[in-house]
Amino acid sequence: MAFRPYGLWKEVLHEMADTNDSRYKTGNPICDAVRFLCDASFAVLPADAARQLGEFEKNFWGGVRWFADKNIGWIDDSLAAAERLREEWRARCAHTPGPEPITQTPPPEGVG
User: Fold this and answer.
1) Per residue in 23-54, is it b (16+ CB within 10 Å) or e — as a string?
2) Which of 69, 80, 100, 111 is at 20 to 30 A from 53, Cα to Cα?
3) Residue 5, SS3?
4) pLDDT tens readout for residues 70-112
């Protein structure tokens, strides 16, 4: 017997239609199906295992959020430091004469 995702999708929609829970009737069938699958994935586990898994997932996503917040702060700090460096380089470039243009340099001996 081959696995057919469409068959699974039909089962999910059928099971959702049998419930009276308004969580699965928001008007967006994809979100409703994902919510139902998430709820069902916890419902098939024993209650204590489902709670432990839920706590683990909340801690995981809390860690991801913490890291994202830290990373956003690091990006803001880097952008501010980049502005300072850019200004420093512009100031240094304004006071330091650049190399003389190639057209003013005589060609090496034996060329031209």
Assistant:
1) ebeeeeeeebbebbeeeeeeeeeeeeeeeeee
2) 69
3) helix
4) 999 999 999 999 999 999 999 888 877 766 666 666 667 877 6
